[in-house]
Specification:
The structure is a single chain. The chain is mostly beta strands. The chain contains 1 helix and 10 strands.
């Protein structure tokens, strides 16, 4: 009886591992491996709007897309691309395999609109990034001075 129970347990474990391998999580050559670096928000100069910047790195063998951003500090967070000096709102940004998506001053950026309160220098803002294939990432974004200009990372 013990052998049969052990065989069933082993079979159930093998089945669970096989199912885990088929799910969209984990790492491997056909998966995105996303991480976030250098997040920051310059202290807003407006009472109802702020910008945010960060870099999303993908060390995985598959691309992904950033599809939405939310934060408890804002009624809405929108994503904007900048090309040729023109800013346009985007519904998604591609993150290539073995590549990066950079949000920086003067380029792609996040806009925190309808601020519920104005974040102050030294505070942090919680941001949730949602992707088309990977699970969401929650990021603590420090609020820097309004004139902050990072020397590295962006």
């Amino acid at each position: 009886m013990r052998r049969r129970a052990a065989a069933l347990t082993g079979g159930a474990l093998a089945g669970a591992l096989a199912l885990t391998g088929c799910s969209g999580s984990g790492t491997g050559p056909d998966k995105a491996e996303l991480s976030v670096g250098s997040p920051y928000m310059p202290q807003p100069v407006s009472a109802d709007m702020a910008a945010g910047f960060l870099t999303i790195t993908n060390k995985g063998g598959a691309g992904d897309e950033l599809t939405s951003v939310t934060s408890d500090v804002a009624g809405e967070v929108t994503m904007h691309g900048t090309a040729g000096g023109a800013m346009t709102e985007k519904s998604a940004f591609a993150i290539p395999a073995h590549g990066r998506l950079v949000f920086r001053s003067g380029g792609n950026h996040l806009m925190f609109e309808k601020l519920k309160h104005a974040p102050k220098q030294g505070q942090t803002v919680t941001v949730k990034l949602t992707f088309s294939r990977s699970g969401p990432l929650t990021v603590e974004m420090p609020v820097k001075s309004a004139t902050y200009n990072p020397s590295t990372g962006h």
